[in-house]
Amino acid sequence: MSSNEDPKPKDVTEEAHSPSSKGGGGGAYLLLFFLIGLALSMVVGWGIFPKVLYSTKSQPFDFNHKLHLEQVDDSCQSCHFLREDGTFSGAPRLAQCIDCHEQKEREVPWLIYARQPDCVFFSHAAHIKGAGVDCVTCHGNTGTSESLRTYQENRITGYSRDIWGHSIAGIKHNTWDRMKMDDCAACHKDSGSHESSVQTGRDACFVCHK
Amino acid sequence: MKLSRRCFLSLVAGGAAGTALSPLPWKLADDSSIWSQNWPWTPVPPDGEGTYTLSTCTLCPGGCGINVRKIDDRAIKIEGAKDHPLNDGGVCMLGLSGLQMLYGPTRIQTPLKRAGDRGQGQWKPISWEQAIGEVAQKLGDLRGLGKPQSLACIAAKDTGTVGRLLRRFMSAYGSPNFFRMPSVEDAYEAAIYITQGAIGSAGTDVNNADFILSFGSALLDGYGSPVRVFRANSRLKELNGTVVQVEPRLSNTAAKADKWLAVKPGSEADLALAMAHVIISNNAMNQTFIADQVEGFEAFARMVQEKYAPETAAGKTGLSVDVISEWAMKFASARRPLALYGKGKGQVPGSLKEALAVHALNALVGNINAEGGVWALPAYDYINWPDIETDSVAAAGLQTPRMDGAGTDKYPHARYLTHRIAAGAEGIEALLVAESNPCFSLPNVQAIRTAFEKIPFVVSFSSFMDETAMNADLILPNHTYLERYEDVPVTAGVTQPTVGLCRPVVEPLYKTRHLGDSILQIAKAMKGTVAGAFPWEDYESCLKLTLAGHWETLEEKGVITAAGYAPGGFETASGKFMLMNDDQGAVYMADDVATEGNGNEYPLVLIPYDSIRLASRYVGAAPFMIKTVSDAVIKGQDGYVEINPETAKTLGLADGQLATLTTPVGTAKVGIHYDEGIMPGVVAMPRGLGHTAYDRFLAGKGVNVNELIGFVEDPASGLDAAYGIGAKLA
Amino acid sequence: MKQAQTKHQPKRYGMVIDLDKCTGCGACMVACFSENNVPFKEDETDKRLSITWMKVYKVTNGKKFPDTEVCYFPRPCQHCAGQHEGHSPCVSVCPATATDYGMETGIVSQIYTRCFGCRYCMGACPYHARYFNWWDPVWPKGMERYLSPNVSPRMRGIVEKCSFCYHRYQLARNKAYTEGRRTLKESEYQTACTQACPANAITFGDLNNPDHAVHQMAQPDLHHHYKPKNPHAFRLLERLGTNTKIYYVSSREWVRKAGDNYQVPLTTDSHGPENSGH
Hints:
The complex is a heterotrimer. By secondary structure, chain B is α/β, with parallel strands linked by helices. In chain C, the strands form five sheets. Chain C has a four-stranded mixed β-sheet. In chain C, strands 2-3 form a two-stranded antiparallel ribbon. Chain C has helices spanning 27-35, 120-124, 166-178, 192-196, 213-218, 253-258, and strands at residues 13-18, 55-60, 70-75, 99-102, 107-110, 130-132, 159-161, 202-206, 220-221, 227-228, 233-234, 246-249.
């Protein structure tokens, strides 16, 4: 927001000596410009910025969760399950798809909405089995959706928009609207987890980090 | 309307206020901080399904079981296999580093044909068809000339299906010139044969001994099956057992031993025989065993009493008579004493006299073929292949004597005298090198390389670009042990016949081929009786057919042992343990092994030592291993030698300075490291450094001790028995 | 400092290292490198710059040949508790909340993305157990394939250290949760160095649990900052009051004295053949 205007020294002197030399409309003008600036930047900040910040990517193909959910016996766990060693399988591999579908050539490169940064250790086992948290609590109504949402990728961080949430202001209405560290911490606090961190008085850092 | 400065400022202020009220700055700050924590060049290892694959490590002869952790199709960690009879979950640094070799930059990824001069490292990738075809053509030509004996083969081992396929190929082809890389097994096999009439290796029951008298064996630096020996040592600590280490240097083993007997280099046989003298003089031997099962005791007793009084040995070893007597008696009075032969990890066969002397100590205390003692271990007998039909060319070739003279009247106790390649390779027209790196790990490596230069056709089957592969004409790269099936018979001192199964942990990463398949295909391409000797379709079917009933157990458990195996009686003519006869008399009467280089010109003795933090056989040390090596061993690129401060000071050498180390064989720039743990007059240097091949993490660091030391033939056996070499430092 | 509000007995993970059994072979170091994606450089001979979460030190008794004796000290992070639980030297100086003390486990954690590289913790650590990444880690092309997804690779400009293989604790708990359990068996959570040690010299477990081998071997005195009651056991630099969770056992008196070098003047050989000092 710079200007090419190069005011002459004379004008500067004039202005310095007569603060309201342009007459009675000066204050209104100033307000008008202030409001224009305010409005423009609000448009940029609230409207344009989010569009520029995120690139949209489409999934390899549109997956119908609802249709699949009706076909399987064990709801979400039919395809997204805890392995025997306690780790979580995540998005199904081709090997699972071909249990029902015909042989396909290669793995499907799904874009994962809920993928957290590498420093995060998230235990599905602890949440599902330990705390009895529903899938919906964090993943929303994906299971009953008929179509996959557009995947939005943050151009700076490379992470899915789901982490910050779709409200650019960071306002959340549902538990699954945002998945930042504060959201984890808030839920941990509410659920009465151990306040074992010497530094923060909350859960210890290593509980969720690696 | 003219935009005044104040209006403009107002606009900016409005913009600033609006921006602050919008998510832009806050979100940008947050995103930038996340961005700064996730540099795109910091790898993010992909997650997936975790599995384990049970296999066997082949990086040393130890044969430990390994359990390899995988994430999807990536191998991410090697762990010791729990409940394995040899290592039960433990694993050494070399075994842990295997993935750095699998995924490392020194892998040979496709068959290569030399493009420039030998050793220049210029290669042309070729197809497998061409590679097999060229070898078959060349070998076929030699047979056509009626010179099958001019083909030689050097391999790490002669057992197991791959070792046997190589030997079978040589036989079918018509050459007696199969060489095994030298090791202490050469001397142990000879000693077992001479004394017990048995053909096989020596099993040392370290797990049940309560007193171990080690003649320089690197129990804690990779001797035998390393983890097995470590466990035995820890067990002795728990049970208040005793370990005595005989060695001129305070090695790890000596440091952890209950008693360190610092002897002059090369005086071990004298010490062993003096101890025998003490035991016999005090009548402390196992009388029952001597009476019932030993032949030649009187002759032996006469010899030690005449020639090996402790007073004589005291001078030779540098130990006092009291110390020799004290520890000889402690050895004899232990419940299950065990004397071990073989210096370091056992890469040099050593003197047969010393091997026999140590073995005689075991016989005196009656622990031959007994619990906690030394067992004769026959080869695990699971390979029953049909006899080979040889054609006239092969039959004629096999009639020619071995070019190293092993097994002849002059050297009846040696099966292989592989070190002799350094003395010249005349007569070798073609050479196959499998899973060994003679151009690095044989003594007097310059002479070995010169000999290689004279061999017109050298084929390497190495998985890695090692020194020998660098000096080859053709490379037919083998899969690494993590990409292939193979039986791994373990002879490294185990007391139960043991075979591990090495199996593919990952799919082969590159265009490599199993050594077994390469041999089969070369043979098939040669047609006739050579092809006829190999009735198998491919290596895997050969392996499965050979293992037959064992296959399923091996697949499931990764290892089979002939549990409950106990050696039978002695296989000598009298059925007794032969403590002394004419053969042995000749060995005992033979001259001592002398070091090269006389004392005036070379006042010091350079001894190589083995460290478990370095690899000195077929594979080179991985980056992780080099990372753990002390800065007293390598600093920058310089290798350091250990020297007693007293000796160094008389030579005017300061701690940490660089100096020139000269031996009759070579000269090198080395750093000086003062160490109180080494005998004055002795200089020590580890094996496994000074590589010229491999990657930048290993190459060019330190000095290859094999460039400074040559072989010294044992007068009795012809085996290499060099324990050191005369040296000077300036 | 906030106190933990735990209703149940917290864990106190720790280690007992038998120096009589330790052979100085260094398998623990490489097991750690391999488990924790520890990087390596072309030249690792400047040991101040060489990242080794677990490091084997060599100490000699300073006597001349042939009376020289040597002992090896494997040194992971000592996971100090301090004089009041959680008052570890490093945790108390970290301005970035990057290093923390977990009251539930007694483990001192390091969160790499949180660290901004001020290195106060390195200055505070009396054991040189913390390492700074002066360079970005680089793996030769293709070698990054062996990296474990369970431990985040670090970047330039941050401090790292031994975590007691915390990810193994996380994974073991995953399995327990999946099987409907809340407690771990002793064997379920073991560090990589403990598992690899060919000499069985390292023992790992919960010092608070009388059933665990570490408790029996070290015999920590709960009323005196967990000082070992076993007369052969000691902790490094005990007199600093760091209240560490690594106990060493040795039958040799000079070795035990060497463990607290504030008590006895001692020659440490920083140029031992199998390791190096700082």
